[in-house]
Specification:
mainly alpha; about 75% helix; about 475 residues; Amino acid/polyamine transporter I; globular
């Protein structure tokens, strides 16, 4: 780890920008327009949700950058929260990371991988007689079971490879972002060049004032947008470790997020010029379709479907592997600090946290069976914004607790920018409870299940100390 940190200190603005972009753009840009269409029924409102989601993301990232710059050498969101609040709150974040945030991210990416494979090679339906089997009317484990099984196999195979000590090459992340850019460029170039596209009501500005979109539905649609913007928080890991961080961190975040906002708007205008709102709603209702695949199919036929599906397949394969590899580290670190089960804090013969990887893989596989891609990602955003808001509140807390500490970067627009982001996190929290009660209830249950676990571990470790 020390070598990585010294390397990062030598890198400048260009690296920060690429780091931000590479950690944001993933599966969401290919898929999330469909649930947004189902919620908003308007091309103009969909684009408005992407813009507002991007601005809010920017506010959160800028606020997080101040905390990251101040506490950068201690590393990661888990330690930020321990410093701002206490061990209990830091544990609750780590527990949420394990039960929802990181594991459901792995599940979601693996699910999109399986859907993309299904577009190339149709995956046979399995146990169709059980597809209506339900657990509490909430979970349908055998629905699309063939696709889910492929997603589970991917998680377990990649987990096994990581346990064996096999690591990705240094250029994997860079290669993935080039693949993503290639795919999006193909969609935009051929899609906007298709003169026979533009469905009815495409970019009809009168839709902004016709009153069909409620405040709650707009908020709910932004759950989808935020999944696509998810990943900016990772800039915290290089918070104080770049050249001239006072200038390069905020510049890199602003420029990186603005590039992503521009790309997302361009790509989504292309989708909306190729597919009507009813068509996008059908894609969402189908469950196993991907908007980007259907958009390319409309102008390039079967060959285009193969190309874009293969691209999404490779992209999500790399992202799933990266999420599995990095995701196991916080639980390992927690166990070393007696904030998780002791067995997870052990390295195996190949010098990797094998137990941490194994339990992460098992739980991520169970989450695949629990729901659909959109249900999983809504749960992730609901949970993660609780802690994003808590970290941003830390800007105010740390300015009072550590007024004289050196801050390589102070959030622009303080106190307005962090205050707006905190208010938005509160609004998203309550709106999700109202609009997505199932996802919110599952998310809160998994988060709060950490409370008895924390006190159990505390009692267990105190007994060990007494012996």
């Amino acid at each position: 780890m020390g070598n990585q940190r010294s390397l990062v200190r030598t890198l400048g603005l260009g690296y920060v920008i690429i780091f931000v972009i590479a950690n944001i753009i993933g599966s969401g840009v290919y898929k999330k327009i469909a649930p947004m269409a189902a919620e908003l029924h308007s091309s103009v409102w969909i684009l408005a949700a992407w813009i507002v989601g991007g601005i809010i993301t920017l506010f959160g990232a800028l606020s997080n950058a101040e905390v990251a710059g101040l506490l950068a050498d201690t590393g990661g969101e888990f330690v930020y929260l321990k410093k701002i609040y206490n061990r209990f709150f830091a544990f609750m974040y780590g527990w949420s990371l394990f039960t929802i945030i990181q594991t459901a991210t792995i599940s979601s990416l693996a699910y999109v991988f399986a859907q993309s494979l299904n577009s190339i090679i149709p995956i046979p339906e399995l146990f169709t007689s059980l597809k209506d089997f339900t657990i509490g009317g909430v979970f349908f484990p055998f629905q699309d079971f063939g696709v889910k099984l492929v997603a589970i196999f991917l998680i377990l195979i990649l987990t096994g490879l990581n346990i064996s000590g096999l690591k990705s090459g240094a250029g994997t992340s860079k290669g993935i972002i080039y693949l993503v850019f290639t795919g999006l460029a193909v969609i935009v170039f051929f899609g906007l060049g298709n003169l026979h596209s533009h469905p009815a009501h495409f970019m009809d500005l009168s839709e902004l004032t016709n009153g069909t979109v409620s405040f709650s539905s707009f908020f709910t649609a932004m759950l989808a947008a935020f999944w696509a913007y998810q990943g900016w928080v990772s800039v915290g890991f290089i918070g104080g470790e770049v050249k001239d961080p006072t200038k390069n961190i905020p510049k890199g975040i602003v420029m990186g997020v603005f590039v992503v906002i521009f790309i997302y708007l361009l790509v989504n205008v292309t989708y909306l010029s190729l597919l009507s709102i009813p068509q996008l709603e059908q894609v969402h209702a189908a469950g196993n379709q991907i908007a980007a695949v259907e958009a390319v199919r409309s102008f390039w036929g079967t060959g285009g479907v193969f190309f874009i599906s293969l691209l999404i397949l490779l992209t999500t394969l790399g992202c799933t592997n990266a999420s599995i590899l990095t995701g196991a580290r916080p639980y390992y670190a927690m166990a070393r600090e007696r904030l998780f089960f002791s067995g997870i804090g052990k390295l195996n013969k190949t010098n990797v946290p094998g137990n941490s990887l194994l339990w992460q893989g098992i739980w991520a596989s169970i989450l695949v069976l629990s729901g659909t891609f959109d249900q999983l990602t809504d749960m992730i955003i609901f949970a993660v914004f609780i802690f994003y808001g808590a970290t941003t509140l830390g800007v105010f807390i740390l300015r009072r607790k550590m007024p004289d500490a050196h801050r390589p970067y102070k959030v622009w627009g303080y106190p307005i920018v962090p205050a707006i982001f905190i208010l938005f996190c509160i609004g998203l929290f309550f709106n999700t409870i109202i609009a997505r009660p199932r996802e919110a209830a599952i998310g809160m249950t998994l988060i709060l299940s950490g409370i008895p676990v924390y006190f159990f571990l505390k009692k267990r470790y105190s007994k060990d100390e007494d012996k």
